Amino acid sequence: MKASQLLFDNLIETDPRTGIIKFNHKRSVLVSVEALGLLRRDLINTLGMERAKGFLMRYGWEWGKKDGETIASMYNWKNPKELLLAGPVLHTLEGVVTVEPDTIELTESSIHFTGFWRNSFEAKEHIEYLGAGNDHTCWILVGYASGYLTSAFGKDVIAYEECCFGKGDSYCRFVAKTVEQLEEKHKSYLNYYKAETLVSELDRAYQELNSINQTIIESDKIHEELTNYLLEDKGLSETVQFVARVLNRSLVIDYYNKQIESAFLDREDEAIYHNWSDRFIYTEERHNDISTFPIRANAVNLGRLVVIGREKMTQKDQLIISRARSIFTVQMYHDWKITRSLWKKKENFFEEMLHHSIDEGYEKFSHLFHFLPNNPNRVISIKVEPSEKRQDVMQFLKLHPDYSKKDFFSNDEFIIMILTNEDMEQILHVSANLLTQLKQQFKNGRFYIGVGRKSKNLADLRKSYEDARSISNFIHLTHPADSLISLYEDMGSIMMFLKGTDQTELIEFYKKTIGELIEYDKVNESHFLITLKTYLDYNGNLQQTADKLHLSIAGLRYRLDRIAELCDVDLKTGEGRFHCQLALQIYFAMLINGKKPPIIHS
Question: Per-residue pLDDT tens for 355-382?
Fold first, then answer.
């Protein structure tokens, strides 16, 4: 017998009187595709996608296995290959799918069979009701092919789909191999064919639901205890300790890697956290379970929760963390609001100090500050770009141990910090260290730090405040692409102009006055700018200037004529000299700010 000789009428016996249909003397029934589709959908809804897939693959296996046993006993087959090919013919005759065999390679111990499935009812049902998936959808067909070929060949054969219409491919293509030939990822298909029943699937689903329900009940109890912590006004530290004990995991709440609260189970976990967070040793993640969760409220970034354990978190752990995070958020937002209120109170009173004489009222608010207005102080102004990062910088400074006893305020577009006497001795070191820390923490930020004059009383403090803001604005305008520090001492007499003049106009003024002279020096490698500065430093005395520059009087006169021509000024008049002197002051102030080497904190 050859597979191509199989005919439907020869396979099926029908009895019109009784309505019984038989296949090889065994009763069969015709089932509509709609009914099979409904069964498929109900199984997916009841068991979930993965379990429904397993159940239908086993159903297909048993169907194919029985067909293989039946067809093998009905005829004397010409050779084993014809018996194997009879399976696709039979599947087509039964109306399940049109099978087009492609290649078949057969030995005594192995089989490699490929082909196409056309008009798969499973693929069409899946797309119609669930849409195209990410995995193959012809589960009954795969099971049928595996069961039939296993029965006919006498060894375990697994079929799988290379392409499937149900996941968006233009056709369904199957591959069938003996287990020994399968790739590792396809050997797992064997697990689907273990003896299971719908009852066992439902029982397993019930057990899972029961477990989930128990987990929810237990997490609700934890949440109730956490809520009591909140209502009893217990601190964040106590809440973190409680959750760490419940989870048996270490917890850290940090902000830009600065710890706010922590509960480490042991020193090893503490070392793991510091290696991972401070030293960026991310290999710790391969040896430990480290998870992070953001803590935010009303679009305010309050920090993050870091959970450290040895084993992967269970569903129960994740539920508890979800409940705990909501409590942490409430506690931290409450603290944030109080801190903001304190900052605002300090900022408002500081503004009052700067604009009104309230020395006598300071005593009432002295508890808010770490400085005394009539002691030696100095104001630092920090301009942050982009400006949206200013609040993050404020939070960073608040949590940083170096600045915990410093007074700082957010004022207009600046952050203002007061340095007291002990910091003033090393002002450049302190400000450079501050800049280094900000640049390390905020990689894409730019910072313009102005340091005002030394003050010994409230009147001087106001001047130091104005100095610092003006300097920050000036270096922002002159070097927008860099992060810089400039001290009051760097600016010299130009400070008088910075406070009373539009700083953009100052820059335009220097460029208009000596801009061409600077460009001429760059192109010709000349020293006309130094000649002009020396001439002005010696109040226009030709002999002293010539001696200083080692020039002849004639050579100096030539240079001065060229300088006057390039700058379009008359150096013989007081007005011309004043314009050049002011332009030079602005230029060298910018040069100092741009060239000052950073001092790195060791």
Answer: 665 555 554 555 567 777 778 889 999 9
DSSP assignment of 28-59: E----HHHHHHHHHHHHHHH-HHHHHHHHHHH
* Residue 322 CB coordination number (10 Å): 12
Which among 154, 50, 32, 52 is positioned nearest to 95, based on CA atoms? 32
CA dist 267 and 586 (Å) reads 56
What SS3 state is found at 11? helix
CA-nearest of 264, 31, 50 to 139 is 50
Show the tokens assigned to 59: 């159903």
Number of Cβ within 10 Å of residue 87's Cβ equals 25
Q: Which of 292, 221, 219 is nearest to 252 (CA)?
A: 292
Distance CA 202, CA 224 (A): 33
Helix/strand/coil (H, E, C) string of 195-242? CCCHHHHHHHHHHHHHHHHHHHHHHHHHHHHHHHHHHCCCCHHHHHHH
Output DSSP code: residue 596. P
Collect all residues with Cβ–Cβ distance below 8 Å to 551 and sequence separation of at least 6: 545, 559
The mean pLDDT of the chain is 82
pLDDT given at position 593? 53
Q: Give pTM, 2 decimals.
A: 0.43
Contacts of 404 (CB under 8 A, 6+ apart): 398
- Residue 304: Cβ-neighbour burial (10 angstroms; 0-12, 13-18, 19+): middle
Task: Tell me the per-residue pLDDT of 257-295, one tens digit each, with 9 for 90 and over.
Answer: 678 899 999 999 999 998 898 887 878 888 899 999 999
